[in-house]
Design a protein that fits this description.
The complex is a heterohexamer, with 3 copies of chain A (115 residues) and 3 copies of chain B (408 residues).
Chain A lengths: L3 E8 L4 H10 L5 E9 L5 E5 L2 E5 L2 E11 L3 H12 L8 E7 L1 E4 L11
Antiparallel strand pairs in A: 1-5, 1-6, 2-5, 3-4
Helix pairs in contact in A: 1-2
Chain B lengths: L3 H28 L5 H28 L31 H19 L9 H24 L4 H6 L7 H19 L15 H20 L7 H29 L4 H15 L8 H25 L7 H19 L18 H31 L6 H6 L1 H6 L8
Classes of the chains: A alpha+beta (115), B mainly alpha (408).
C-alpha cells in the first residue's frame, strides 16, 4: 500500500494562485493550504516601530500539501517548480514524504482511491 | 454680528468633517488587501497634515481671497491667514476663522477621496507631492469658481453647488481618472480576485462618513437655522434611500444583499445629495438617493466591464454620484427651500439644468486635464508608482516598513 | 421662535444618535462569531436606510401627527413629511424638521437593538420586512402613546419617559422576546461556547454608543439649556456607576473583571437612565446606574440558567435595564430638576410609581403580543430563520456572499 | 446669563472629550501585543466609570471649590455635587453642571494617558485603586492650582495653561515616570521586538483623539465665540504640522515614513498646542506643531537609547510635548488673541516664560513625587505588577479571563 | 521503534468539537489543531465584491493531528470518521504516516512513552 | 536517499525566539513556523463571556519544522529541548519523521543539498 506520497511545497504567498492552477492543469484537484512563516537564506524585512528597528526574519510563506499517487509525484513537483520559481532567494522548498494510508471520511474508502 | 449658536454649529460641523478623513481612511483601508492597509491609511492621514498646512499658508487665500482675475482665482491677501480673524466678515454670523477651518476640511478630504483610485500601487511621497501642487493649482481655483467671491460658476453662471458636488466629488473623480491613466492598473487586475481584507473596518468608516457628512452638508448653511435642518434631513434621507436602492439592486441582479453594497450605497447617496442639500425638499431627496444608489451600482458594473483599474471606485461613486446630484439639483431646486438659491426644472426654470451641466463639464475638464499635466510631471520626474516587486510584496512593508497586523 | 443654540444642539444631537446605530452594529458585530459578523453589521446598517425611509413616508405622521384616536395613534397629516418645515412648531425653538429627524434616529435604533437577540440565525430579508411592518404597527403607535400629541401614556396617564425607556428599550426587548419564541435558539446553544470574535470591535461600539447617548438623552431636552446639561450629567454618571457596578459584581462573583463586563455595564446604565434623564439629579443617577449594573448582570446570569437564546442579551440589558429605569424614574423624579416633569415617590408622590408600572406593562404587552402576531405572519410566509446548513456555515457566506475578513 | 449657543458648544465639547478616552484605549490597544489588548482597553474604559464617580463625589469640589488653603486645594462645598446646578455661576453663560461635566472628562483622560506607560504588565485592580487615590491627592489639587478659584499657578503666578498642558499632559507624564520607576520594565524589554498588533486600531484611535481634541481645546473657551474658533484653528494646525514633521523626521532619519509616525505626530502636536490654544495665532501654532513633532520624535529615540520602559511613550509624547508647549506658550502668547491672557516673550514680556517654567517644574515635581509615594504604598501592599507567568501568558487571559480575538 | 503513527485528519471546522470529544472518549487526549484551507471536489463559494464575482475555492478546514501507538490507529480512525462524517462532499481525509521517534520536551523522554 | 529527517517541534509561543536562536547556533538556518493549537495534559484556561464560563482546551502553540540531515538530528533535538524546556506541563513534543526527498524550488536541486 505504500504507493502514495505527500508532496509539501513551501512557496511565496503571491504564487499560490499560480501553483493551484498548475496543479489543476496537472490533473490534481485536492490540496490543503496553510499559512506559515519561514526563514532561511532570504533576508528578512526591517520594520520600524517608534524609532526602534527590528528585523522580521520569519517571512510569510504558504504551504501547499498534496497527497498523490507515486506515479504522479514527478509531474506534481515539476508543475510546482514551474509555477513557483522566480529564481530569487526565498522561492521555497518541496519535501516528499511517505504516507502509509489514506481514508476518505465521507465514505470510509481507503487507499489511493480515497484521494 | 457673531451668533453663538451659529458659531457652535459651524465649529462642531468642522470637527465632524475632519473626522471624515480618518473615516475615509478606514473605509478605504478595509477594502484593500491586508498587505496594503497602512499605505491606504497613511495616504489619507498624512493629508490631514500636509493639506491643512498648505491651506493655511496659501490655499485659503487663492480660493476665498478677493477675486484676482475674472472669477478664476482669489488674490494673496490671506496668505498665511493674514486678515483671517476672530470677527465675522460682513454679513456673516460666525468668526472668519471658523469659516476658514470649515473650508480647510473640504480641502483635505477632496484629495483623500482620490487615493482610493490608486490603491495598492501609488508611491507615497510622489502622491503627497502631487497633492500639494494640486491643491494650489487645481483645488483652490475650482473652489474659487464655485464659492469664492465673484467666482465664475457660483456668481456669474449661477450654477448651484451647496456643499461641494462639483468642487469635492466631481473634482476628485476627474483627478482620479487622470491619475489612473498615468499610473495604470494593478498587477493582476481583472485576473485575480482582490477582496477586501476587513469589511468591519469599511463599515466603521462608512458610519463615520455618514456622521461627518451632516457637518459637511448641514454645516454648509453656515448657521444653525431652518436651512441647516433642511439640509440635514435631505442628507440623511438621500443616504438612506441610496443604501436601500444599492442593496436592492444587487440583490435582484446578483442574488445577494451585501454589506459592502450597503456601505457603498450610503456613500453614493451622500455624494449625490451634496450639491443639492440646501436647495431641495425631503421627497426629492429620497428620489435623488434612490437614483444615486442605482446609478452608482451601475457605474461599478461598468468599470468591471471596461476593465480600467479604479481600485476603490472613485469614478463610479464620486464621479457618477456627483454628476447625477449636480444635474438633479438643477431639476429639483426650489426657492421654497432656499430663497437664496434658485428654482430648477420642476419649479419652472429649465435654464438651471443647463447651468449645472456647464459647471459639471467645466469641472471635469479642468480636473482631468489639469491633473493629467501635473501628474505627468510628477510621474516623469520621481514616479507615481512603486516597483512591481514592491507592489507584490505589499506597500506596508516596502514603503512604510510596517505591518498592519501582527497576531502571532 | 427659532433659537440657533437650541437648533445647533438638536441637529448635532441627531447626528450623534445616528452614529449610535453603526456603533451598535460594531458592538453586536464584535460579539458574534467571525462567520456572522457581516450579517450582524448589515442588519443594523440596512435599518439606517429602510427605517428612515419608512419614517419619512409614514412613521413620523403616525407617531407625531395630531391624535387620531383616543391617544393611540397619530393621523396622516404628515405623510411624506407634508407640513414638516423649516419653521418651529408652536412653543418650540427648533425647526420642525430638526425635531422630525431627531425622532427618526430613535425609530432606527429601536429595531436595531432587537437584532442582537436573533444574532447568527435570522434571515436578512424576512427580518427587514418584519421591521418595516413593525415600525408602522408597533413602534409608531408606542411612540405616540408616550410622546405624541395627547398620547395616552404621556398626556393622560402622566407617566414619565424622558428619552425612551419604554418606547425604545422596553419595546425592543419585548419585541426581542416575541421573536426569540418564534425563531428558537441557535444550533448548539448552551452546548457549545460561542465566544465573541473581536472584543475590540465591541469596545469601540460601546464607546460610540456612550458618546451618542449624550445626544439621545440630553438632546431630548430639545434645547441647549440647564435641563439638557442636567440630562447630560446624569447620563454620564449612571453609565459610569453601572460600568463600575457590573465589573465589580462579576469580579466578586466569578473572580475576574472583564472587558465585556465593562462594555455591557455602561450600556446597562445608559439604558436605565434613559427614561429618568430629564427628571432626576446626579446622586440618584449614581444609584440608578449602580442598580442597573447589578440588575442587568443578574439578568444575564438568569438567561444562562433559563436557557433561552437571547444571543446578545437584549432582554437582559434593555428589558431589565429599561424596566428598572422606568420604575426608578417614579421613585427619584423631582420637579426641582424639571418643573414640567412630576414628583416621584421620594418627593412625596407614590402615585407616579404606579403610573410608571402601568406604562411599562402596557408597553411590554403591546410589544410582545404585537410582535408575536406580526412575527408569526412573516415566519409562516417567508420564514424568519435560515436553514441549519446556512447557520452552520455562517450567514456571511450564505446570506451575503461575503467574508468579514480575508487575511491570507 | 445662560446662552444657548455657548451651552450647546460646551455640552457637545464634553461629549467629544468623553470620546477621547475610548479613542485613547484603541490608540494604545492597537500598539500592544494581541495577548494584552483587552487589558489595555479595560484600564481605560474602567476609568470612564470610576474616575467619573470619584469626580462627582469629591474630586470636583477639591479642584473647583472655593479655595481652602493658599491656592493649593478647593474646599468641600461641592461634595456630591452639592450646589452644582442648572444655573450658570456668576460671569458664566453655561450651566454650572455643564462646566462640571466638561471638567470631569479631563479628570478621566489624564489617568487614562498614564496607562500607556505601564502597558502589558500592570495589575488591573491595583492600578485602578492607585488612580482613585491619585485623583483625590494629585489631580484635583493640580487642577485647582491652575484653574481653580485663586489657584496659585493660574491666579497668583500668572502662568497660562489654556486646556491642560500642565494639568493633563505634564501631570500624566510625571505620574508615568514615577510608576515606571516602581514597576520596572517588561520582561524582554529591549531584547525582543514587541511590535503593535493592530495599527488600524491605533489609527482609528488617533482619529478619534484628534476629533475629540477640538472639544478639549476649543471647548475650553467655555463659549462659542471668536476665541473658541481661534483655539479650534490653532489646534488643527499644530496637529497638522506635527504630523508632517514627525513623518518627515523619521523619513529622513530612518528611511521610511510610517503610519505609526503619522499617528504619533498628530498627538505630539495636539499635546503641545493644548496649553497655548487660547493664546496664540495660527502661524505660531504651525511652529509649535513643527517643533513638537521633531522634539517628541527625538524623545522617543532617547527612550530607546536610555532603555527605561515607557511602553507607549507617555513621557516622550505627553511629557516632552506638554513641556515644550507650556514654554512656547510663554514665547508666543499675545493679548491680541486673548485679552484675558497675557503677552509672552515675542510680545515683549519675557517674564511669562519664567512663570511657565515654574508652573512646569512645580507640576513635574508634584506629579512625580506624589505618585512615587502613593505608588509605593499601593505597590508594597497589593502590588502594581502581575506575576512573570501572567505577563508572559498575557494579561487578557490571566487578569480578565478573556481573549481579544477568536477567529477559529 | 517504528510503532507510532501520525494520524492527520482534515475535517470541517464545525466538526472540530465533535472530533475532539470522540478522541477523548477513545482515550486520546493529546492533539494539535491547525487552521487550513482546502480544495477538492467540494464546490467553492461564490463571493461578491462591488459587482465582481469570484469563487473562493479554498475552503476553511481544520487539520487535527494525533500521534498515537500503532495499536490505537484503527480506533482513532474510526472515532474520527464517526464524528466528522456528514456524507456530503467536503468531509475531508485522513492521512496516516510513519513517525520515527517522539520526544517530550518537558522531560526528554523518548518513544511511545513521550505521547 | 533516505538521509534527511523532518524534526517537528511543538513549543510554547513565547519560546519561539529562543528556539530559533538555539537552532541558528546549531548551524540550522532554514525552518518553517506554524501557529497551531494543542491540547494534552496541560490544563486549559477558563474564559468568561457575559456570565457563562467555558474552558479553552486548545491552547496556542507554535510548531517549528526543520528538515535536516540525519546527522544533525540529535543536535537539533538537543538544541530545541534546551531552548524550549520549562519543566512545566505543556512544554510540547518533538516528532521525527522520514522525508524521502527534498527539492529547492529556486534551482531545482534535489536531495540534502537542497536544504
Ligand atoms: N531546512 C528547512 N526546513 C524546513 N523549512 C525550510 C528549510 N529551509 C528552508 N525552509 C523554508 O523554505 C523557505 C525558503 O527558504 P530560503 O532559504 O529563504 O530560500 P531558497 O529556498 O530560495 O533557498 C523558508 O522561508 C522556509 O519556510
Ligand atoms: N490529494 C489531497 N491532498 C491533500 N489534501 C486533500 C487532498 N484531497 C482533498 N484534500 C483535503 O480534503 C478536503 C476535502 O476534500 P473534498 O474532495 O472536497 O471532499 P471529500 O473528501 O468529501 O471527497 C479538501 O478541502 C482538502 O483540504
Ligand atoms: N499525541 C499527540 N499528538 C499530537 N500532538 C500532541 C500529542 N500530545 C501532545 N501534543 C501536543 O503537545 C502539546 C503539549 O502537550 P501536553 O500534554 O500539554 O504537555 P507535555 O508535552 O508537557 O506533556 C499539546 O498542546 C499538543 O499540541
Amino acid at each position: 500500500m505504500k504507493d502514495v506520497t505527500r508532496v509539501e511545497a513551501i512557496v511565496r504567498p503571491p504564487k499560490l494562485d499560480d501553483v493551484r492552477n498548475a496543479l489543476n492543469e496537472a490533473g490534481i484537484h485536492g490540496m490543503s493550504v496553510t499559512e506559515i512563516r519561514g526563514c532561511g537564506r532570504q533576508k528578512g524585512f526591517t520594520e520600524r516601530y517608534r524609532g526602534s528597528e527590528y528585523t522580521i526574519n520569519l517571512l510569510h510563506k504558504v504551504k501547499v500539501e498534496v497527497v498523490v499517487d507515486d506515479a504522479q509525484v514527478e509531474a506534481v513537483v515539476a508543475a510546482i517548480i514551474d509555477a513557483a520559481q522566480t529564481g530569487e532567494v526565498g522561492d521555497g522548498k518541496i519535501f516528499l514524504s511517505p504516507v502509509s494510508d489514506t481514508i476518505r471520511i465521507r465514505t470510509g474508502e481507503r487507499g489511493p482511491d480515497a484521494l | 454680528m457673531l451668533d453663538t449658536g451659529d458659531t457652535a454649529f459651524v465649529l462642531v460641523s468642522s470637527a465632524m468633517v475632519m473626522l471624515m478623513t480618518p473615516g475615509l481612511a478606514l473605509f478605504y483601508g478595509g477594502m484593500v488587501r491586508a498587505k496594503n492597509v497602512l499605505s491606504m491609511l497613511l495616504q489619507n492621514f498624512f493629508l490631514l497634515g500636509v493639506a491643512s498646512v498648505v491651506w493655511a499658508l496659501v490655499g485659503y487665500s487663492l480660493a476665498f481671497g478677493t477675486d484676482a482675475f475674472g472669477g478664476l482665482i482669489g488674490n494673496l491677501d490671506h496668505i498665511g491667514l493674514t486678515g483671517v480673524g476672530q470677527e465675522p466678515t460682513e454679513g456673516s454670523t460666525i468668526p472668519h476663522l471658523a469659516f476658514m477651518i470649515f473650508q480647510a476640511m473640504f480641502a483635505i478630504i477632496t484629495p483623500a477621496l482620490v487615493t482610493g483610485a490608486l490603491a495598492e500601487r501609488a508611491k507615497f511621497g510622489a502622491l503627497m507631492l502631487f497633492f500639494v501642487i494640486w491643491q494650489i493649482f487645481i483645488y483652490s481655483p475650482a473652489a474659487h469658481w464655485v464659492w469664492g467671491p465673484d467666482g465664475w460658476i457660483g456668481s456669474k453662471l449661477g450654477a448651484l453647488d451647496f456643499a461641494g458636488g462639483t468642487v469635492v466629488h466631481i473634482l476628485s473623480a476627474s483627478t482620479a481618472a487622470a491619475l489612473i491613466v498615468i499610473v495604470g492598473p494593478r498587477i493582476g487586475n481583472q485576473e485575480q480576485a482582490m477582496p477586501p481584507h476587513s469589511l468591519p473596518l469599511t463599515v466603521l468608516g462608512a458610519g463615520l462618513l455618514w456622521f461627518g457628512w451632516f457637518g459637511f452638508n448641514a454645516g454648509s448653511a453656515l448657521a444653525a437655522n431652518g436651512l441647516a435642518a433642511s439640509a440635514f434631513v435631505v442628507t440623511h434621507l438621500a443616504a438612506a434611500a441610496a443604501t436601500v436602492a444599492w442593496v436592492a439592486a444587487e440583490w435582484l441582479h446578483q442574488g445577494r444583499p451585501t454589506m459592502l453594497g450597503g456601505a457603498s450605497g450610503c456613500i453614493a447617496g451622500l455624494v449625490a445629495i451634496t450639491p443639492a442639500a440646501g436647495f431641495v425638499g425631503p421627497m426629492p431627496a429620497l428620489i435623488i438617493g434612490l437614483l444615486a444608489g442605482l446609478a452608482c451600482y451601475g457605474g461599478i458594473l461598468l468599470k468591471n466591464k471596461l476593465g480600467y483599474d479604479d481600485s476603490l471606485d472613485v469614478i463610479g461613486i464620486h464621479g457618477i454620484g456627483g454628476t447625477l446630484g449636480a444635474i438633479l439639483t438643477g431639476v429639483f431646486a426650489t426657492t421654497a427651500v432656499n430663497p437664496d438659491g434658485a428654482d430648477g426644472l420642476f419649479s419652472g426654470n429649465p435654464g438651471l439644468v443647463g447651468a449645472q451641466i456647464v459647471a459639471v463639464l467645466a469641472t471635469i475638464a479642468f480636473g482631468f486635464l489639469g491633473s493629467l499635466v501635473l501628474g505627468f510631471i510628477v510621474h516623469k520626474t520621481i514616479g507615481l508608482r512603486v516597483s512591481p516587486d514592491h507592489e507584490i510584496i505589499g506597500l506596508d512593508k516596502t514603503e512604510h516598513a510596517e505591518s498592519g497586523y501582527d497576531m502571532l
